[in-house]
Predict the 3D structure of the following.
Amino acid sequence: MKLVTRRSFLVKLASVPVAARWSFAAPVQPNLMFAGTDTGGSSGSKGIYAYRWDPASGTLRRLGLAAATASPTYMALSPDRRRLYVANEVNEYNGSKTGTVSAFSVDRVSGMLTLKNVVSSGGAGPCNIAIDHTGRAVFVADGAGASLASYQVLSDGRLSDPVSNLHFTGHSVNPERQKTAYTHCTVISPDNRYLLVNDLGLDRITTFHFDPKLAVLTPVDAPFYQAVPGSGPRNLTFHPNSHWAYSANEMGNTIDALAWDSRRGTLTRLQNISALPPGFTGYDETATVRVDATGRFLYASNRGADTIAVFLINAVHGTLQQIQQISCGGKTPRYFSIDPSNRWLLVANQDSANIVVFARNSGTGLLASASGQYQIDFPMFLIFA
């Protein structure tokens, strides 16, 4: 497939009126955003920080420390937006080699969070968390612990003790980085029947049935998708049409375009495509992958090349065509989020300690660096509330 360069793409775009090139949806009201940070080592960060986001101007106003909590590196919001669930990426809790999961209530006026309870994650280094579409079950992946835990959400928003606590064994082909399993991502299927779990160490995406009321996990008949050996599937997202999914491979620096069979709970590879800038030969780890609200464009972050890659999604086949690589505006873009208005993309650059705002062209999918750049110690995750 021929790569459309940014230059040739913009040449074609030049004939389009400026107003049409950067047309946006109707204005929306300011929103609340939380930033999770790494609080370990020399970091001056204390936990989760709240911001007021203005989609009209693409600007953030810092409200302050929303909650002091250890390394809140991934978060999930309840469907009613009243509660926030946090994976605390630590390796010890109450004398055991396990991380923690925290439940908070959200004050949408002040942006402050109130702790409801803290429970064990069941394994070391929890790095990902998801809540089902009914808001009754929470799932956590422990990277260093190679484990997966599920929880019931109690009537007052607190988390139960782990209901299912599964530990994975095995290895893949990379003798340095794939000596053991490394669960890295938990994603709920669009129909709320399945949990998909990316395992960077096993090169697998494992699928489970779950019961939202009980939060019990059970394997499906064809339990996993086998990724390209040595690719390291890290992060997963579904397309709005519910028929396709996309997996970012950290070690292979690729994106897998996948067909999703909701009847059987299985994934089938449609394409494996590089996420890197053409000609790039340095060290890189692809991190996050997301599809915009229209389902026309996909974005991926590259840590090392320090870029955001933009892809056009084929409306018939679900395959990808790379159309842009743009600097992330810092170093190590661990995570990014597309705002609720679908106009902006915000990047959390971990090692340059900044959040950078990009304007997103709704017609072409292309990104343009905006003036917004906000300093914060070691941002790891962004979520709009």
Summary: Helices lie at 6-13, 18-21. The mean pLDDT is 93. DSSP finds two helices and 28 strands in the chain.
